[in-house]
């Protein structure tokens, strides 16, 4: 099979080489070839890097790490939809329903995003970056299942163009492209990105009853908890135990509700050395430390958020997903080790602070990651300056 593919691509390469009629489509040809075959190019002189983990394999492993959260997202999306629509909640029915809701969004994300990737690759005459395949999967996983397909197309377009390509493409962007696209939709189309109704896709025959039967998300319940009441009691009274929140079986974004499956993906990437444990652990410490500090300063006049058990912040909403797959993205994160600790800590702390002090943004994780993306280069610069300042000058 490999020999057959080799012969096919070798026979077609001449049509895409410089000077040929299809020269401008060379990036597309290279993209398809690298999907099926590893490059046969080798360096003729040193230095030689001996490492089996090239960019393509790097991105493939990230996609593999996303599969637990993605497949759970398919099930949970279908399950929540069937429950609200009065349909069977069994596993196969939920998965079937989830596929019908989620896969059109994934197809739109890949199709539209690939168009822009191909266009910029043709204009700049460079190969298509494999990083797009991760972005195109992450983006729909951060969306509510009810988002219109045309808005998803606009969102991935904005993320690819203004979150990456305007800065020169993969490796030169300082913002996470998937979160950039989501943030654009959040501010451009808030009606379709906020509120309890957007997190559960209702069968068309049941749409008239959506306001009466759609379940509230844990974050909205927490924000609506009355003063002098306990958020934990409110969540428990609505059927949201800590374990249910940890597993992620509640209405929310397609792939971001499960702390359990986000953790599984993160551990997989940590074992392979693809992401930094400093950012991940720093983020967890930031969430817990900020939550504990708020517990300490809480008074009777404080909002219920101040008294919330800090561990609940880690299992509600998309903070676990953001820390595992967004904050740890190597391009938009700092490179220096101490900067990574501070970067992760700040994302966790900001997430909690946004949730507590700004009820308009009950999630917080998206804004926290994007905000710290802006400061990542500065953090690296400060650490380098500090290190250079400690050196003994040569005399």
Describe this structure in words.
With about 400 residues, this protein is mainly α. It has 2 domains: about 55-195; about 215-250 and about 260-385, no CATH class. Helices cover about 60% and strands about 0% of the residues. It has helices spanning about 1-10, 25-35, 55-85, 90-125, 130-140, 150-165, 175-190, 210-215, 220-225, 230-235, 240-245, 260-270, 275-295, 310-315, 320-325, 335-355, 365-390. Helix 3 (about 55-85) packs parallel to helix 5 (about 130-140) and helix 7 packs across helix 17. The longest helix has about 35 residues, at about 90-125. The radius of gyration is 23 Å and the shape is globular. The termini are far apart.
Helix and strand layout, with pairings?
Elements: H1 2-12, H2 26-36, H3 55-85, H4 91-124, H5 131-141, H6 149-163, H7 177-188, H8 210-213, H9 218-224, H10 231-237, H11 242-247, H12 259-271, H13 277-297, H14 311-315, H15 319-326, H16 337-357, H17 365-390
Helix pairs in contact: 3-4, 3-5, 3-12, 4-5, 4-6, 5-7, 6-7, 7-17, 9-10, 12-15, 13-16, 16-17
Strand content: under 5%
Helical residues, percent: 55-70%
Pattern of helices and strands: HHHHHHHHHHHHHHHHH
Beginning-to-end CA distance, first to last residue: 64 Å
Secondary-structure class = mainly alpha
The biggest beta sheet reads:
none
What's the oligomerization state? single chain
Per DSSP, the total helix count is 17
Average the pLDDT over all residues and give the rounded result.
Answer: 85
How large is the radius of gyration? Answer: 23 Å
Record field, number of beta strands: 0
List the domain count as a whole number: 2
**What low-confidence regions span 5 or more consecutive residues with pLDDT below 50?**
206-213
Shape assignment: globular
């Amino acid at each position: 099979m490999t020999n057959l593919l080799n012969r096919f691509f070798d026979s077609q390469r001449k049509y895409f080489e410089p000077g040929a009629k299809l020269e401008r489509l060379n990036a597309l040809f290279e993209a398809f070839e690298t999907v099926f075959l590893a490059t046969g190019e080798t360096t003729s002189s040193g230095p030689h890097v001996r490492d089996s983990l090239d960019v393509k394999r790097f991105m493939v492993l990230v996609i593999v790490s996303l599969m637990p959260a993605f497949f759970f997202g398919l099930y949970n999306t279908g399950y929540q939809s069937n429950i609200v629509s009065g349909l069977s909640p069994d596993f196969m029915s939920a998965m079937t329903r989830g596929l019908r809701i989620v896969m059109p969004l994934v197809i739109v994300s890949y199709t539209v995003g690939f168009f822009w990737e191909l266009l910029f690759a043709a204009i700049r005459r460079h190969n298509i970056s494999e990083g797009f395949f991760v972005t195109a999967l992450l983006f729909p996983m951060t969306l509510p299942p009810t988002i219109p397909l045309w808005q998803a197309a606009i969102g991935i377009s904005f993320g690819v163009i203004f979150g990456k390509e305007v800065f020169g493409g993969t490796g030169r962007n300082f913002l996470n492209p998937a979160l950039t696209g989501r943030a654009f939709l959040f501010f451009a189309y808030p009606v379709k990105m906020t509120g309890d109704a957007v997190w559960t896709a209702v069968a068309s025959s049941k749409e008239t009853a959506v306001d009466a039967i759609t379940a509230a998300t844990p974050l909205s319940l927490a924000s609506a908890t009355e003063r002098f009441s306990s958020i934990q009691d409110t969540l428990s009274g609505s059927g949201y135990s800590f374990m249910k929140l940890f597993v992620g079986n509640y209405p929310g974004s397609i792939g971001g509700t499960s702390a359990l499956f986000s953790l599984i993906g993160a551990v997989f990437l940590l074992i392979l050395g693809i992401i930094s444990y400093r950012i991940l652990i720093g983020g967890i410490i930031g969430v817990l430390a900020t939550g504990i500090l708020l517990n300490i300063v809480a008074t009777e006049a404080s909002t219920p958020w101040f008294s919330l058990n800090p561990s609940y912040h880690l299992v509600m909403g998309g903070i676990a997903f953001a820390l595992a797959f967004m904050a740890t993205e190597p391009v938009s994160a700092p490179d220096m080790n101490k900067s990574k600790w501070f970067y992760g800590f700040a994302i966790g702390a900001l997430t909690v602070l946004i949730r507590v002090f700004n009820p308009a943004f009950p999630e917080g994780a998206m804004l926290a990651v994007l905000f710290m993306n802006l400061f990542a280069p500065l953090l690296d610069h400060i650490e380098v300056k500090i290190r250079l300042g400690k050196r003994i000058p040569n005399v």
